[in-house]
Amino acid sequence: MRDEEASDAAGVDFISSMGALLERWGLPQTTGRLYGYLLLQNTPVDLDTMVQDLGQSKSGLSVAARQLESWSVARRQTQPGSRRVCYEAVGDVRRLLEANNAHLRAFSNTLRLGVAAARGGSRERISDLADLFTLYVDQADRVLAAWEAERE
Fold first, then answer.
1. Residue 151 neighbours by CB distance under 10 Å
2. Which residues, at least 6 apart from 90, have a Cβ–Cβ distance to it below 8 Å?
3. The dihedral of CA 138, 143, 149, 152: what is its sign?
4. What's the pLDDT at 1?
5. Deepest of 8, 10, 61, 70, by most Cβ within 10 A of its Cβ?
6. What digits encode the pLDDT tens for the residues 47-86?
7. The model's pTM
């Protein structure tokens, strides 16, 4: 097998795996597949090329691209004098991770409300969950800070 064929096979596997993974996270498989595809691209890609390469509908890929853009993991680019829109994956997903941490912190805070309402074993269970999520988010914040410091 030529290197290019091996790379193509690995790319197809990666795109499929990303689609399946993000589907388990509640996103459409098309969105995950497009994200995997965009991560592999070295330059921004227009919708017509995506349709050709992924074999999916233009409308479905357009919706997926906008969803990735709303999550701050893809960026839209326009070309002067053209109505053609291109998309590229964004390498810095710090904002996405920060938003995720904010949701998890809110979850932990809500669990803490349950501690006051719970009795017996349920109180300890809810308290343990709240502690775990608080620790997780605190550690995730430290990892992000260390990553940013390392990049500077």
1. 8
2. 72, 73, 74, 75
3. negative
4. 36
5. 61
6. 999 999 999 999 999 999 999 998 888 999 988 888 889 9
7. 0.72
